[in-house]
Design brief:
- The complex is a heterodimer of chains A (about 350) and B (about 325).
- The two termini of chain A are about 20 Å apart.
- In chain A, helix 4 (about 140-180) packs antiparallel against helix 9 (about 260-295) and helix 5 crosses helix 7 (about 215-245).
- Chain A folds into 2 domains: about 5-35 and about 145-355, Orthogonal Bundle (MetI-like fold), CATH 1.10.3720; about 60-130, no CATH class.
- Chain A has about 350 residues and is an alpha+beta fold.
- Chain A is built from 12 helices and 5 strands.
- In chain A, the strands form 2 sheets. Chain A has a 3-stranded antiparallel β-sheet with strand order 1-2-3, with no helix packed on it.
- Chain B has about 325 residues and is an alpha/beta fold.
- In chain B, about 30% of the residues lie in helices and about 25% in strands.
- Chain B has 10 helices and 12 strands.
- An 8-stranded mixed β-sheet of chain B has the order 6-7-8-3-9-10-12-11, sandwiched between helices. A 4-stranded antiparallel β-sheet of chain B has the order 2-1-4-5.
- In chain B, strand 4 (about 75-80) and strand 5 form a beta hairpin.
- In chain B, helix 5 (about 160-175) runs parallel beside helix 6.
- The longest helix of chain B has 18 residues, at about 190-210.
- The radius of gyration of chain B is 21 Å and the shape is globular.
- The relative contact order of chain B is 0.14.
- The chains are: A alpha+beta (about 350), B alpha/beta (about 325).
- The interface between A and B is medium-sized, with 20 and 36 residues.
- Chain A: Its main location: membrane.
- Chain A: One of its GO terms (cellular component) is plasma membrane.
- Chain A: It is a multi-pass membrane protein.
- Chain A: Keywords: Membrane, Transmembrane, Transmembrane helix, Transport.
């Protein structure tokens, strides 16, 4: 006998056949892994600054020295001169060679918040500094800050979406299942939230919080703001779905069996909205990432020195910076890649989950 | 009528209007009179076949009995208890005795549930079971409806329509009901499967000693199944009679004209009725059937006939029959 396969497994095997979504999934997994193992991957702490190296360009990794001899990978030390506009010009000092070191020493940190550790994947000895992707205005390593920033920018999407989907599913499910006056009340409430333009709602919610919060508080606040703005759209759709699902005969059969309302909603209504919810969640995550970016870009979100992709981008608001130090735009590239990946993944998920409805 | 205490189910003057609301203030502009004053009774271990065109209120009536829709007025007694006055807790207990099999087996089983989970939900709704006890009970139920033990781990989509209907029946009898409502339970199946399911239902009816309310738009399906037949037309009973009286050929002139037309259409003679049934929104004055009745007279247009006992437990709502 053929083995029975659940819808989930069918969908998964379908998803595996979509190349774009598998690549997206891979990119996202790599980024999320980086976010988890940040401390080990990066050579410097996010607030480790060296003003001397303001806007230092990405360090070139060499394999051959000046004499043309093959060596293990290394970088040269940098010397600084000023040009006629008094801008810094970095030159490589061919005398001083700093080999790249695996498991190099760095500042002490708590690995995975568990135990102290002071090694990182790749680094160089002091006093040289390795800037894989260049430095920002204060000489902080952009690579390190980007990876640190991913902790905030990537988790804010997931947590925000889970919270707002929880609200949306509960309100939509109840509203559609019971209908009548309760439905009317909840839906008008939802529309009131939807009515306010999202961005101004975010700004005014931000204004409700006092300035000078700790970075953890700010993080929670941004999550709260984004999920508060995000739930109404989903609630409306779930409401519509459960309105039609409650007339399904298996729901009626469950009612005649005496199954309680809450169990019917949890077992028969919401699981049938799950395909839609999953697709929608994958599509919504980019909106949360962009929302955080927008708030932080304006200086209303995550505060310096704590990095997030949004507040790192605020350095790239000036045309001069982009002209001379294009690497400050890197966070933008990452935002683009993540948003793109989530959208492609959502696309693949939709195709994977859809055929089940047609069956 | 028959004595109340003997009847398992007793409906009195049950009405359900669905208001049509329009405008800003939801003013009621019209009523869909889906069930417009229905009296009905079903005795212990008896089967009543309820027949009528689509849209005549059969399903609404069944859902009112199942307490899925609340009636506007009237009373329903089941097993001596008033369903309309029961609170939520009492209702859960009463529901054990009153189960349903729906028309579309593709819709009545949750596609995300395995058969095990479907039966689990039914059995655990009111009682607790040990795991092994549950397995035995579930396999027993599947056996009763003619499905093998291996069905338990499969999903509904892996079964044919007939098999699904068997699962739905297994679910319905899992609570040891006193009464089954079969809402067009075989209408969506093809003829051979229909026969199998009807045989199964007949067998179960005898074994478990349950009464049935069998709703169908097809008189022939009800022929071998029912003790009595009730004919519904536009939200009201046109006729309630012992099955034998309806299905005896020579009795054609002693039944309601609408029933006559239904029987004639079943034996493939010429189409005997013209026109569509009137809308429940706009029920004709006088006799509801007069717009399509071949025997209509002036009085039919003016006065509505009551459902009267003619003879031998045969009730007809007609001035001339």
């Amino acid at each position: 006998m053929r083995k029975s396969r659940s819808q989930f497994r069918l969908a998964l095997s379908h998803l595996k056949r979509s190349r774009a979504s598998m690549i997206s999934l891979f990119i996202l997994l790599v980024l999320y892994a980086a976010a988890i193992f940040t401390d080990f991957i990066v050579p410097y702490a996010y607030d480790d600054e060296e003003r001397l190296f303001s806007y230092a360009p990405p360090s070139r990794v060499h394999f051959f020295d000046d004499a043309g001899k093959l060596r293990p990978p290394f970088i040269y030390a940098k010397t600084i001169e000023l040009d006629e506009y008094r801008r810094r010009v970095y030159r490589e000092d061919k005398e001083k060679i700093y080999p790249l070191k695996f498991f190099a020493k760095r500042e002490k940190y708590k690995f995975l918040f568990l135990f102290g550790f002071d090694r990182c994947l790749l680094g160089v000895d002091k006093p040289a500094r390795i800037y894989l992707w260049g430095a920002d205005s204060r000489g902080r390593d952009i690579f390190s800050r980007l990876i640190y920033g991913s902790r905030i920018s990537l988790t804010i999407g997931l947590i925000g979406v889970s919270i707002s989907f929880l609200i949306g599913l509960i309100i939509g499910g109840i509203s559609g299942f019971y209908g009548g006056g309760l439905d009317n009340f909840l839906m008008r409430l939802t529309e009131m939230v939807m009515m306010i333009p999202t961005f101004y709602l975010m700004l005014s919610l931000r204004a409700a919080f006092p300035p000078g919060l700790s970075s953890a508080h700010v993080y929670l606040m941004v999550v709260f703001i984004l999920s508060f703005v995000g739930w109404p759209g989903l609630a409306r759709v779930i409401r519509g779905m459960s309105l039609s699902l409650r007339e399904r005969e298996y729901v009626l059969a469950a009612k005649t069996l005496g199954v309680s309302d809450i169990k019917i909603i949890l077992r028969h209504i919401l699981p049938h909205c799950s395909s839609y919810a999953i697709i929608n969640a994958a599509l919504a995550i980019p909106a949360y990432i962009l929302g955080e970016t927008a708030l932080s870009l304006l200086g209303l979100g995550i505060q310096d020195p704590m990095p997030s992709w949004g507040n790192m981008l605020s350095e790239a608001m000036n045309i001069v910076q982009i002209r001379f130090y294009p690497w400050v735009l890197l966070p933008g590239l990452f935002i683009f890649a993540v948003v793109m990946a989530f959208n492609l993944l959502a696309d693949g998920l939709r195709d994977a989950l859809d055929p089940l409805f047609k069956k | 009528m028959i004595d109340m205490s003997e009847n398992l189910l007793q409906l009195k003057e049950v009405k359900k209007y669905f208001p049509i609301k329009k405008g800003l203030f939801y003013k009621t502009v019209a009523n869909v009179k889906a069930v417009d004053g229905v009296d009905l009774s079903i005795g212990q271990r008896q089967t009543l076949g309820l027949v009528g065109e689509s849209g005549c209120g059969k399903t609404t009536l069944s859902r009112i009995i199942l307490r899925l829709i609340k009636e506007d007025s009237g009373s329903i007694y089941f097993n001596g208890r008033n369903l309309c006055a029961a609170n939520k807790k009492e209702l859960r207990q009463i529901r054990k005795g009153l189960q349903v099999v729906f028309q579309d087996p593709f819709n009545s089983l949750d596609p995300k549930f395995r058969v095990r989970e479907i039966l689990k939900e039914a059995l655990y709704a009111l009682e607790k079971y040990e795991t092994s006890e549950f397995e035995d009970r579930a396999v027993g139920l599947l056996d009763q409806v003619g499905l093998g033990r291996d069905a338990i781990d499969r999903f509904p989509y892996e079964f044919s329509g007939g098999e699904r209907q068997r699962i739905a029946i297994a679910r319905a009898i899992s609570t040891n009901p006193k009464m089954l409502i079969l809402d067009e339970a075989v209408s969506s199946l093809d003829v051979l499967i229909q026969k199998q399911i009807l045989d199964l239902l007949l067998k179960l009816k005898d074994e478990l000693q349950i009464s049935c309310l069998f709703i169908s738009h097809n008189l022939n399906v009800l022929k071998n199944f029912s003790d009595r037949i009730a004919v519904m037309y536009l939200g009201k009973m046109a006729e309630v009679a012992p099955a034998l009286r309806i299905f005896s050929e020579d009795n054609l002139k002693n039944v309601h004209p609408y029933t006559e037309a239904l029987i004639l259409s079943g034996v493939r003679r010429k189409v005997s009725l013209k026109g569509e049934p009137e809308s429940l929104l706009n029920i004709p004055s006088g006799c509801r059937f007069h717009t399509r009745c071949p025997y209509r007279k002036d009085v039919c247009r003016k006065r509505e006939p009551a459902l009267e006992l003619k003879k031998n437990g045969h009730f007809i709502a007609c001035h001339f029959r």
